[in-house]
Amino acid sequence: MDLRSLRYFCAAAEAGSLTAAAERCHVAQPSISNAVAQLEQEFALRLFSRSKRGVTLTPEGEAFYQEAARLLGSAGEMEQRFKRVERPTLSVGINASLASRDSGYLLQLTAGRLTDYRLQVRSQPAQSADLWLLSERQVPAGYHFFALLEQEYRLLLPRGWSLNQPLELEQATQYPWIDRLDCELRSAFLERLPELADHASLQVDTEDLALSLVQHRQGATVMAVSDDIDLLSPAIDSHSLRGLVPETLRHRQLGLACRAELADSIIAAFG
């Protein structure tokens, strides 16, 4: 006796027909007939009465059916409880220019929504990823973007370095400047504020390093930050760039970009 034979027998009992049971189980009719014959032979029972109209359970067959149905139900519950379901994998690329605090936050949001998938995360993967964590300005062609976090570009200085309010660029350029080569708007900022390039004392290629240098009082820089910058970096003061650069340069959206064919699944996951 095996579970498959019991399933075929129960299907025949419930359908009242070997042909209907075969259609229901997506097998050929002889598979149903052989399963029933094997059970009848193994248990020395006559399970069905056969007629032109189909099959009906004998009294012994009815009792056998009740036990078989109970056993199949228990097997299904056991399978549901203990069988490990393999989740499909999605590759996630993190743009190298994204600060670790931002990528960690975005990845937390993404993983919390895509619980039906196993995420394989890489920084700048060699092959094109299914998903990207990045800025809206960096979205590759053919990907759909979902904004998850809005940030504002601000001037960052070590706490205690004085500046007039409203901000005067001339005073800011008196301090050592940290030139961020990774900044997606670096060229636009230098075009609008060419004085910054003349005062660069350090060049770095990551946000994390630039932030650490400001914290250690090595200079000032411009960086896109969230509302909690004061809580994350108590050693840093941030100043608005309002009036110094166009509004289009003062803000950015961070989020998730996905392949076009995954867009419907991602929309459903994020609601």
Automatic annotation (TrEMBL):
Pfam families: HTH_1. Belongs to the LysR transcriptional regulatory family. Keywords: DNA-binding, Transcription, Transcription regulation. Signal peptide: none annotated. PROSITE patterns: HTH_LYSR (PS50931). The keyword DNA-binding applies. This is DNA-binding transcriptional regulator, LysR family. Residues 1-58 form the HTH lysR-type domain. PANTHER family: HTH-TYPE TRANSCRIPTIONAL ACTIVATOR BAUR, HTH-TYPE TRANSCRIPTIONAL REGULATOR. GO terms for molecular function: DNA-binding transcription factor activity; transcription cis-regulatory region binding.
